Amino acid sequence: MIDHRFISLRRAVAAALAVLPIAIAATPAAAQTATGTIGVELTVTNACVVNDSTTLQSTLGTVGDVNFGTQPGTFQTVDGELVGNVGALSIRCSPDASPTLTIGSGSNDNAGVRRMISGSATIPYRLYTNASRDNEITIGRQMSLGPATTAPIVVPIYARASNPGGIARAGRYTDTVQITLAW
Predict the structure, then answer these.
(1) Of all helices (H) and strands (E), which one includes residue 153?
(2) 132 inside domain
(3) Residue 6: pLDDT band by 50, 70, 90 thresholds?
(4) Would you say residue 164 lies in a domain?
(5) DSSP 115-130
(6) Distance from the Cα of residue 70 to its chain's centroid
(7) What pLDDT score was predicted for residue 164?
(8) 5 in a structural domain
(9) Residue 5 pLDDT class (50, 70, 90 cuts)
């Protein structure tokens, strides 16, 4: 006699085994993870800018002018001051940089004295670090400006022109002084 319970059990086991691979395939595998890092780096070098520039300047151009105004030919001495687009010369450098400013001779110097020229006539002048004009900026003088902070370094430059000849020839007298900013 056939035991129907046994056949039913056998069919149930066969059906379960047939469905088992589908059930295993439908179950997602456990996700795996790996971690790492990203290196981030920036190298900043010292920099200086002049007169509120926002970009590093390889040439400073004209940083300002000393204008002695219009004087009669009989003037004795006249004082002036460097004035740039923001007033006095203003230098901003990276904090802790040690900037230096070197003031050159000018285009018409003679025997260690800067001179303005008009044709063949000259008028000597001198540059100073203070308004009392007793601390001369000699030709090639290197002025230490640091250490820098985040605040601008204001570098006032004063000037005095002298008329040693009694009556100066009329004309427009000019000179150009080279400056070098190093840091």
Answers:
(1) strand 153-155
(2) yes
(3) low
(4) yes
(5) EEEETTEEEEEEEESS
(6) 36
(7) 83
(8) no
(9) low
Calpha distance 77→174 (Å, rounded): 16
The whole-number average pLDDT for the span 133-161 is 95
Residue 150, C-beta contacts closer than 8 angstroms, at least 6 positions apart: 92, 95
In terms of residues, how long is the chain?
183
Band the pLDDT of 28: cuts 50, 70, 90.
low
Q: Which residues, 6 or more positions from 129, have their beta carbon under 8 angstroms from its beta carbon? A: 135, 137, 143, 156, 157, 158
Alpha carbon distance 60, 53 (integer Å):
10
Integer Cα distance of 60 and 76 in angstroms: 33
Question: How many domains does the chain fold into?
Answer: 1
pLDDT of 40 over the 60 cut: yes
Report d(CA 73, CA 85) in Å as an integer.
30
CATH number of the domain where residue 63 is located: 2.60.40.1090
Domain extent at residue 92:
48-182
Q: State the DSSP code for 169.
A: P
Whether 39 maps to a domain, the answer reads no
CB 181 within 8 A of CB 131: no
The backbone torsions φ and ψ at residue 163, rounded to the nearest 5 degrees and listed phi first, read: -110, 95
Q: What's the rounded mean pLDDT across residues 90-98?
A: 93
With beta carbons less than 8 A apart as the criterion, state whether 59 and 136 touch.
Answer: no
- Mean of the per-residue pLDDT values of the chain: 87
pLDDT of residue 111: 92
